[in-house]
């Protein structure tokens, strides 16, 4: 326990910077204090909630001097919902903070090896609201009515909502229609008190540029009313062209989709168009949630790579291979590496539909795929890994192959910086571009170009 303060203390503090989760950070006798919804530049009265050896956590009691960047959140449940973290900050200011979060991560994990002039201004969204093309929301039966919502920050407390201002207008409308039909057809959502019900989650995805919609009912058990409900749903919402029933009674499972999945209506996939290419999406397949910013993200990857027509590229962590779709016309050949079967199937279908013949999809992990390509001269490797980053094994393989250039798409500044700390022994960082893929959240996406060091 830190001897300088205790739980319940009230302190007046200057907020120095923003943390990686969007919280304000102040210091008291060199101890960092993390304060939710406090902004850099503010002077605030803070109640200390928790004290640890290396940090403390506090709550704003009073804003003595507010930041000029403080704004009123536009969502009525922002204070309790766990979805957004930064609606209380002017959007232009948050773009600057996202760059700063990236720079602080580089400084902490990679030190002076990175020239911060190489970190460019954050590319913001032209339309920062109603951008999410997919929603995966819990459903509950409350006082005899079906409701959809979110879970409160850092808890499993259900927060009912009417609609979400960062979700697509089409997604919001379709969810409202489904909830009304669930009441009409008495296909109840989960009741946590009585431990009964049918529907535990709704997953709704809409093609931003095609308006085709896909609905997945994540069910605790089968309902004999679902076919009748879906028939009515597609008559009311004709853009819904794909509906699945997924039986998954395991409330502790991380994912929603199980092997017990049934196509109730329409097609197995919906179509989306991005940068002139069709993508055919199964319900489990990963696709960026912000269609407009996804185009910006992949365009930056292509720009930074500067591929030449004689070069061979690897698209690792490929998903449904959007990177391959963007770069194929500048490369001799692309190998798209992905473990997930559904994503590989979607990738192959999309490549075929778009007439792309110089991309090979390999359903494999990175190590096994590279062993099969050891006779190839790989010029450029593209990475878009999950939040855990590349990790030691992948980096060892990169350093063994030593391609001339690496393009690293990241969704986590901390793991990016840790990976760069190792990669920079053999590579130089040329440029990092932060991209605001998720407005009004603390999440920071970026694309980096690394070039192999020239050895004498």
Could you please describe the fold and organization of this structure?
- With 456 residues, the protein is of the alpha/beta class.
- 24% of the residues lie in helices and 30% in strands.
- It contains nine helices and 22 strands.
- A hairpin with a 6-residue loop joins strand 8 and strand 9.
- The longest helix has 20 residues.
- It is flat.
- It starts with 9 loop residues before the first strand and ends with a strand.
Taken together, the total number of domains comes to 3
Q: Which class best fits the helix and strand makeup?
A: alpha/beta
CATH class of the largest domain: Alpha Beta
Count of helices?
Answer: 9
Strand content: 25-35%
Largest sheet: 7 strands, mixed
Large-scale geometry: flat
Terminal residue distance: 53 Å
Number of strands: 22
Sheet with the most strands: spatial strand order:
9-8-7-10-11-12-13
Q: What Rg is obtained from the alpha carbons, in whole angstroms?
A: 24 Å
Predict the CATH topology of the largest domain: Rossmann fold
Uncertain ranges: none
CATH superfamily of the largest domain: Vaccinia Virus protein VP39
Mean pLDDT: 93
């Amino acid at each position: 326990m830190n001897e300088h303060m205790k739980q319940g203390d009230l302190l007046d503090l200057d907020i120095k910077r923003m943390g990686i989760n969007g919280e304000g950070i102040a210091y008291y006798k060199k101890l960092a204090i993390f304060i939710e919804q406090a902004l850099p530049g503010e002077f605030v009265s803070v109640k200390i909630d928790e004290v640890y050896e290396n940090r403390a956590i506090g709550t704003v009691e009073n804003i003595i001097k507010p930041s000029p960047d403080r704004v009123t959140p536009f969502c009525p449940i922002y204070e309790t919902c766990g979805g957004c973290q930064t609606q209380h900050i002017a959007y232009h200011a948050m773009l600057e903070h996202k760059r700063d979060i990236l720079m602080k991560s580089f400084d902490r994990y990679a030190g002076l090896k990175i020239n911060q002039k190489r970190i460019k201004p954050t590319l913001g969204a032209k339309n920062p609201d109603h951008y999410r093309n997919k929603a995966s929301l819990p459903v509950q039966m409350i006082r005899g009515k079906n409701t959809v919502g979110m879970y409160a920050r850092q808890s499993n407390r259900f927060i009912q909502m009417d609609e979400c201002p960062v979700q697509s207008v089409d997604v919001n409308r379709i969810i409202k229609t489904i909830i009304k039909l669930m009441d009409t057809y008495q296909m109840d959502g989960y009741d946590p008190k009585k431990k009964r019900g049918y529907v535990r989650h709704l997953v709704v995805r809409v093609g931003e540029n095609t308006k085709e919609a896909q609905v997945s009912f994540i069910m605790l058990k089968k309902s004999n009313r679902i076919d009748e409900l879906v028939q009515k749903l597609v008559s009311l919402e004709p853009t819904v062209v794909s509906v699945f029933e997924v039986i998954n009674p395991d409330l502790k499972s991380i994912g929603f989709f199980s092997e017990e999945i049934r196509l109730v209506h329409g097609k197995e996939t919906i179509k989306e168009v991005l940068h002139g290419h069709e993508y055919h999406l199964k319900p489990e397949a990963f696709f960026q949630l912000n269609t407009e910013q996804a185009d910006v993200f992949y365009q930056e990857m292509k720009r930074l790579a500067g591929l030449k027509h004689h070069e061979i590229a690897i698209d690792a962590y490929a998903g449904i291979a959007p990177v391959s779709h963007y770069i194929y016309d500048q490369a001799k050949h692309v190998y798209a590496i992905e473990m997930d079967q559904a994503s590989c199937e979607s990738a192959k279908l999309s490549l075929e539909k778009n007439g792309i013949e110089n991309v090979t999809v390999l359903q494999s992990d990175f190590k096994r795929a590279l062993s099969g390509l050891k006779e190839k001269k790989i010029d450029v490797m593209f990475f878009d890994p999950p939040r855990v980053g590349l990790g030691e094994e992948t980096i060892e393989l990169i350093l063994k192959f030593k391609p001339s250039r690496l393009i690293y798409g990241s969704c986590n500044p901390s793991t990016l910086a840790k990976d760069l700390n190792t990669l920079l022994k053999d590579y130089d960082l040329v440029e990092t571009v932060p991209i605001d893929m998720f407005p009004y959240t603390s999440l920071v996406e970026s694309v980096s170009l690394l070039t192999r060091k020239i050895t004498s």
